[in-house]
Amino acid sequence: MSEGLSRRNFLKSAAVAGAALAGSAALAGCASGGTSSAAAPSGDWLPSSWDYETDVVVIGYGGAGMWSSLVAADEGGSEVIVLEKAPVEGGGNSRINNGEWTVIKDEKLFRDYCIAFGHGLIEEDMIDAYIAEASRHTEYADKYGMTYEVAEQALAGTIPEYWFLDDGKYAGCIGVSSVEGFGMTTFHELEAKRDELGLPVTLLFGCTDEHLIQNPENKEIVGVKFLENGTEKTVKARKGVCMCTGGFEFNEDLKNTYLSIYPFKFEGWQYNTGDGIQMVEEVGAKLWHMNMVISTTAMWTRDPEYDFAIFAGPQSDAFFTVNRLGKRFQNESKTGGTAHNGWHTLMSFSDAIDDYDRIPSWQIFDQRGVDGGPMGTQQGGWFECGNYTTDLPDEIRAWDGWSDDNQVEIERGWVLKGDTLEDLAKKIKDFDHWMDYETLKATFDEYQAFCDAGKDARFDRELTAEDNKLTEEGPYYAISIYPGSCSTLGGPKKNANAQVLDPAGNVIPRLYAAGSFGNFQAHSYGITGGNNSENMVWGRIGGRHCASLEPWDASEKK
């Protein structure tokens, strides 16, 4: 990685280059008045005219959409139109995460690792396809001018996630890239390179309510109908459609239907509402890995105007965590799980309440946790990623980051405050009726005694009265902890060519999927840097394969 690189200056200059392409790319084959000059085949299912025509349509402009469109245009010599739901450019989870991607160091050991952490649920031909393509990551990074360096330690933890399986034999089988400026830097670099190459990629924003257009006889996907800023449009996809619509982090119905526990809250790209799930179901796709997520735990705001998760916590060591009933359940200094699977610690169902008794959990702390500094992530901070990132345009930034003195969040009720422990318990109970003050008080008294004794006899946590004991006078504070942070990973099942399959295992012709929209990992998220790597692997495979097809309308032009 180049030393002395100014992240802010680089991003600003690269953004100008990337944005220029969107306005300059020609809309392939689009006749005046929104009609195509080519005669359309007969059939009520087929539009009588097309507003746009192109070779490859990519739906979604996150990391998978970037790689699909880039490779389809560059290697496949194809014209590409990208349909993006957001009104302006700026997001997708891959652009607002920490930017790390997987670097395979030992292919055989990594293959064994995938079988081990997936417990045999990951199809081996998919593992082989992934390895073959992921082994080219640094080749492509160098080709397209990406700034990175290979690291032995991930920003979020160990490499790989479950390195310790089979007596630790998988340690070191992969590394990760380290990217200054997080995912936004990589995205701007790729946009700048695409502009330099003059590739025929057109970006359309404000595209919603998409539906795939399918030939009812041979099941081919031939285009997409959608609303562009509220106006009905159609786009002809001569070669095919690559679905890169991301997860369903902000669709409560889908989360509560498919995820293993609920509620599940996320801090990422708020346009990820699972639109692609309905689209592929309409054309007969099989769904897979719908319970898969990459996620730890995070604070939920409980605020309808700011409805998302945030990485936040008390800024002192004087705190303890309780479940919905007011009981501790873990060593707070060792919360368990891996960096991207910490949500597993909240998988506790209590028949006594007929519900999950750790969702939410509550961190209880005193004034030192507030006075110690900003409790949540901020713009310009060391971990500036998520839906508040500085480089997001104002109109799609979810909020402006955590306040310096925590007072805004206390006033909004994101952080609950009580003058006494009983007052705090009442405020928690207003949100969740299962909280019991007497139980919380008994937990508080026991925890305080453990601090005086210097040892947590219940959960083997090292404690001291000076550092860990809460004040006896108050005030007291609480934040709600939920499973959540990054993204869901379920979507349509695909094969080693990234082609979407139906329930019988047949290819739905000319339909592809990449990224978090149908991640190939199963059982658990085990590949450090895997989400960005997923974008790169299946985005490149899908874009390359789709671009290689003969146009479905080739006979019309003869």
Automatic annotation (TrEMBL):
Q: Which UniProt keywords apply?
A: FAD, Flavoprotein, Oxidoreductase, Signal
Keyword Lyase appears in the UniProt entry? no
Domain (FAD-dependent oxidoreductase 2 FAD-binding): residue spans on this chain: 55-531
In terms of PROSITE patterns, this protein maps to: PROKAR_LIPOPROTEIN, TAT
The keyword Flavoprotein is assigned to this record = yes
Which Gene3D superfamilies does the entry mention?
FAD/NAD(P)-binding domain (3.50.50.60), Succinate dehydrogenase/fumarate reductase flavoprotein, catalytic domain (3.90.700.10)
SUPFAM superfamilies cross-referenced by the UniProt entry: FAD/NAD(P)-binding domain, Succinate dehydrogenase/fumarate reductase flavoprotein, catalytic domain
The parts of the chain that form a coiled coil are none
Instruction: Name the cofactor(s) required for activity, per the record.
Output: FAD
Signal sequence span per UniProt? 1-28
InterPro entries in alphabetical order: FAD-dep_OxRdtase_2_FAD-bd, FAD-oxidoreductase_2, FAD/NAD-bd_sf, Succ_DH/fumarate_Rdtase_cat_sf, TAT_signal, TAT_signal_bac_arc
Supply the PANTHER family for this chain.
3-OXOSTEROID 1-DEHYDROGENASE, FUMARATE REDUCTASE
Q: Can you say what this protein is called?
A: FAD-binding protein
Which species is the source of this protein? Raoultibacter massiliensis
